[in-house]
Sequence to fold (470 residues):
Amino acid sequence: MKNILLASTSTVYGSSYLEYLLAELQLHFKNCNTLLFIPYARPGGITHDEYTAKVALAFAKINIAVKGIHEFENPVEAIQNAEGIFTGGGNTFVLVSQLYKNQLMEVIAQKLKSGTPYLGTSAGSNIAGLTIQTTNDMPIVYPPSFQSLGMIPFNLNPHYIDTDGTANHMGETREDRIKEFHEFNSIPVLGLREGSWLDIKGDSIVLKGNLKARLFRQNQQAEELESGTDLRFVK
Amino acid sequence: MKNILLASTSTVYGSSYLEYLLAELQLHFKNCNTLLFIPYARPGGITHDEYTAKVALAFAKINIAVKGIHEFENPVEAIQNAEGIFTGGGNTFVLVSQLYKNQLMEVIAQKLKSGTPYLGTSAGSNIAGLTIQTTNDMPIVYPPSFQSLGMIPFNLNPHYIDTDGTANHMGETREDRIKEFHEFNSIPVLGLREGSWLDIKGDSIVLKGNLKARLFRQNQQAEELESGTDLRFVK
Fold:
């Protein structure tokens, strides 16, 4: 039975790394003494070691020891043996390329289906959807595929924002971009605002946090969903 | 000798489609009675016909007849026979996928090297760089490669904007994203603000319009370049 948290962001404005989620994470990882961290998304290009140290600092507050997957000789075994897994944000293309390179995509999917608790933030949440095609990130590396873990039957758009840029900027808004996605794809997309997360327990997919989320479906009007909504109906 | 205009955007705030460029385009395409339009980027998912009609309306003002490449049975021949070429904006991934599908990338590159006047706006400018890895667009389709025409020895970031979103949004700024690109790639990137364009004549690559452009190079401080600067030094 799946046991997965997918957060829009690791950090909300005015608060430290993972701070707003810590109480939730304490419950989520209550049976874990150790956590396997996947630092592959390398936000701002920081090293795997630097990123893992940052995460370890946050999880020390709830007495969970963190080890980066790059510290293991065999990453496949590291996944298989993990008590809990966290994939941090950064660049989704870099993350997915590295997951494919190390042949981890299927291994992680199997592991999560077996009930190992998982946390994703930003890019780490993005990869839980069917594809990474609704990421906000720049395609700074070329991955072998845009397919991802498929832990939910739709795609996510993390860091969802109602307008982009300044009012007189002619670039597309986030909503424009997601609508464009639906000109070419039928997969539903959930725009997850910063401070929101999905709590997946088995088949239920509940929207958590104080904010609404915005659901986009092909050929339908976008819809605002209240916190507490079970999204299992979205397919 | 190359004869290429690469604009950040087709449309500046408060003005109609291509309006701010029309005087320049009249000069640029002065020897053309007809223009071949590449509508593949399909902004907002509009059809090739709809997009071509919009472009035809703008070019009618300077007495140039426009035909979409999709109207030709053989798109390779359409390129080879074109008097002038315009690739419009939209989604860069969709555009590049279609160019590869129709085996046009190399044909267009050769044609432009021979001196056929070209205009690109937004995605149509992006593809003139070495790769599309600094596009702002969502990866809504999976192209066979991120390599593009290589008409300039660097990459472009069209619609460059100094800040993204609202001040308390935690998503990356445009500058953050380009810096992240340089953690993994050495290709220089020019952030081209809306209202700026590059005027390429042979080896010279002159920044035009009223605004500065922002040049990013790996392991160097970003730099503001004045309008009128010849960018041939950027490699």
Summary: DSSP finds seven helices and eleven strands in chain B. Helices of chain B lie at 22-28, 48-60, 75-80, 92-101, 105-113, 123-126, 174-184.
